[in-house]
């Protein structure tokens, strides 16, 4: 009877010991639920904070990139306007060849004046241009002027009071005679009372003042 009771106590003690060891093993290998939950919450919070920081950095960089987009500056090259003013200059004489020059008659011009200006004989201008009425040239008329033929011979003249007497030679006319003496044809016309200077004739005596 006593041995049976002792065996029961030993068996019960073994069971209690086994239970105690099992409880200790579980306590050592498994952390308390409260600490695990706290660690998990902390990790989740840290991860969320890291993601928020990364996302904020990405958004900030995107915004800065949008604001800092370089705008190409258009450089316009201004071309200065060149204003050219053409000055129309009408020369009194234009050379058309080595021996002929063109001259535009101006107001107040007449054959002798033009011939004296270019140092040629008036009849040469008349013949070259086929003029039938040399005394009626009009301003704007373009005349061909021949090249000077050289020195003009001074005609023999007879001295008279107040001037000299010139005997008209064949082919001469009033403007040619005036040029030879270096006087104005009108003075010869007035001195000789000529009503039609174009009708002088060879052998006629003219007073050259």
Features:
single chain, 209 residues, alpha+beta, Membrane-bound Lytic Murein Transglycosylase D, Chain A, 3-stranded antiparallel sheet, 6 helices, 12% strand, rod-shaped
The radius of gyration is 67 Å
Largest sheet: 3 strands, antiparallel
Estimate the helix proportion, in percent.
Answer: 40-55%
Unreliable sequence segments: 68-74, 82-91, 151-155
Q: Which percent range describes the beta-strand content?
A: 5-15%
The CATH architecture of one domain can be given as Roll
> What characteristic shape results from the CA principal axes?
rod-shaped
Q: How many DSSP-defined strands? A: 6
The neighbouring-strand order within the major sheet is 1-2-3
In CATH, the topology of one domain is named Membrane-bound Lytic Murein Transglycosylase D, Chain A
Average pLDDT works out at 70
Helix and strand composition category: alpha+beta
Describe this structure in words.
It is a single chain. The chain is an alpha+beta fold. Among the domains are: 93-146, Membrane-bound Lytic Murein Transglycosylase D, Chain A, CATH 3.10.350; 157-208, LysM domain (Membrane-bound Lytic Murein Transglycosylase D, Chain A), CATH 3.10.350.10. The protein contains six helices and six strands, in the order H-H-E-E-H-H-E-E-E-H-H-E. A three-stranded antiparallel beta sheet has the order 1-2-3. It starts with a helix and ends with a strand.
């Amino acid at each position: 009877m006593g041995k049976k009771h002792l065996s029961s106590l030993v068996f019960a003690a073994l069971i209690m010991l086994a239970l105690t060891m099992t409880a200790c093993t579980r306590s050592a290998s498994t952390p308390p639920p409260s600490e695990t939950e706290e660690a998990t919450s902390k990790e989740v919070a840290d991860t969320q904070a890291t993601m928020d920081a990364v996302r904020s950095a990405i958004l900030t960089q995107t915004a800065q990139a949008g604001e800092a987009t370089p705008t190409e500056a258009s450089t316009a090259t201004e071309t200065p306007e060149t204003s050219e003013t053409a000055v129309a200059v009408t020369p009194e004489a234009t050379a058309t060849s080595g021996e002929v020059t063109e001259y535009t008659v101006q107001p107040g011009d007449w054959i002798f004046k033009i011939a004296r200006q270019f140092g040629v004989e008036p009849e040469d201008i008349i013949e070259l241009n086929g003029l039938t009425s040399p005394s009626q040239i009009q301003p704007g008329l373009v005349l061909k002027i021949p090249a000077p033929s050289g020195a003009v011979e001074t005609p023999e003249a007879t001295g008279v009071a107040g001037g000299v007497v010139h005997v008209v030679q064949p082919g001469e006319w009033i403007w040619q005679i005036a040029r030879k003496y270096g006087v104005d044809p009108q003075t010869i016309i007035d001195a000789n009372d000529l009503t039609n200077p174009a009708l002088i004739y060879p052998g006629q005596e003219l007073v050259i003042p």
